[in-house]
Design goal:
Shape of chain A: rod-shaped
Structural class of chain B: mainly alpha
Helix content of chain B: 55-70%
Largest sheet of chain B: 2 strands, antiparallel
Order of helices and strands of chain A: HHHHHHH
Strand order of the largest sheet of chain B: 1-2
Distance between the termini of chain B: 44 Å
Radius of gyration of chain B: 19 Å
Number of strands of chain B: 2
Number of strands of chain A: 0
Oligomer: heterodimer
Structural class of chain A: mainly alpha
Largest interface: A-B, 41 and 49 residues
Strand content of chain A: under 5%
Largest sheet of chain A: none
Strand content of chain B: under 5%
């Protein structure tokens, strides 16, 4: 091998073929020029990687740590928003569930009376009167519902 | 992946930061890495043959004197800021697949190159010759300490192309394997090996000279 070929093996370092590296190490023991290249390379690498004289800029540190704090605050806010959204969603679903449940629990007389109220609200007096009559014609009508039906009929007149 | 024995405390801290949202963890990451980020930003700017530029004086006037980026602390600070802010933005995506140092130095390289590219566009026709640095007092210190300075590295790297310099930096600074470098650069592993060999061959005369003298040639002459 000539110097250029040894040079290539040194260049690849740990990634060179292990057999080639072994040969190169043996060659180094006897070759003055390659020893110098290797020594020069170590100097080069040391200078290239030397960071001992770097000085931190306090402004950069301050800015970076402030940005980190802002990021954390942002994450906390985003999480709070997510939680608030989920709580609102859960409450909404709860309300809807309660209404559906209440409606499903309410008897036919109750629903007819509510319909009469709605008709009244929309100005359908005729419809409201009819609904009230239907309710009043029901057998075994409790007193409270009877009174409400009469009030509805009265208001629809 | 980091090739050395990499305990990677920063990766653990990043994971901790993401999980617990503890600002202290990020402060510690900064503490562990600011030095290598700044040093690498200084060197990575060499990749693009960063042109020198006018410097503002204390009175707000523009000095005629040109200053290379490797010596421009305020501009390096700007690059470092943008590196750390980008790291903050991307830290949730850091999954520890590479060592933290490689990850943040990859960001540093890109930011430094972007900065120089942007600056070059604005600087227009600044000549590359203007990059050469006045060695002055710093060189005298180097001679005493018997070690090379960044300026020596810069001078030696002048013979390398941007691509060759890039693989040298990725190899020694970011500690990437050839496979990772090939992936990052979008070339084959063989091409990466070829570039490394070529770079090393070009550096050889300078390496020989340094080793023969024990010091950079100019220093030895000065002694």
């Amino acid at each position: 091998m000539n110097h250029t070929e040894w040079n290539d093996i040194f260049a690849l370092g740990d990634d060179a073929d292990p057999d080639d590296r072994k040969k190169a190490d043996e060659h180094l023991l006897t070759c003055d020029e390659c020893q110098k290249v290797k020594a020069g390379f170590e100097l080069f690498k040391e200078a290239l990687l030397d960071d001992s004289e770097e000085e931190d800029d306090p402004k950069v540190r301050e800015q970076v740590l402030a940005a980190a704090q802002a990021q954390l605050d942002g994450w906390v806010r985003a999480r709070a928003r997510r939680v608030a959204f989920l709580v609102t969603l859960a409450l909404g679903l709860l309300v809807v569930g309660v209404v559906v449940w209440y409606r499903s629990k309410a008897g036919p007389v109750e629903r007819r009376l509510e319909l009469g109220e709605e008709q009244l609200t929309h100005g359908d007096f005729e419809g409201a009167r009819k609904t009230a009559d239907e309710v009043l014609s029901a057998p075994d009508l409790p007193e409270a519902e009877k009174a409400r039906a009469l009030r509805l009929k009265e208001r629809a007149r | 992946m980091c090739r050395g024995v990499c305990e990677d405390e920063s990766a653990e801290l990043a994971e901790h930061y993401n999980k617990t949202e503890d600002k202290g963890a990020f402060a510690k990451i900064y503490e562990l890495n600011w030095r290598c980020v700044r040093a690498y930003a200084r060197r990575a700017a060499m990749l693009m043959r960063a042109p020198p530029h006018e410097v503002s004086t204390d009175y707000g006037k523009k000095e005629k004197k040109k200053k290379p980026i490797t010596q421009d602390e305020s501009r390096l600070s700007e690059i470092c800021s943008s590196v750390w802010l980008a790291a903050l933005q991307g830290i949730r995506g850091f999954k520890g697949k590479v060592c933290f140092r490689s990850w943040i130095l990859g960001i540093t390289r890109n930011k430094a190159v972007d900065d120089v590219r942007e600056f070059t566009k604005r600087a227009g026709d600044v000549k590359v010759d203007a990059l050469k640095v006045e060695l002055g007092d710093a060189r005298a210190v180097s001679a005493k300490q018997h070690k090379l300075l960044l300026e020596d590295v810069e001078a030696a790297c002048e013979s390398l192309t941007e691509d060759e310099m890039r693989v040298v930096f990725m190899r020694f600074w970011e500690e990437l394997t050839f496979v990772e470098m090939a992936k990052e650069l979008g070339i084959t592993e063989g091409a990466v090996r070829h570039r490394i060999k070529l770079a090393f061959a070009k550096l050889r005369p300078e390496l020989l000279r340094w080793a023969s003298l024990g010091l950079p040639a100019k220093d030895k002459g000065e002694q």
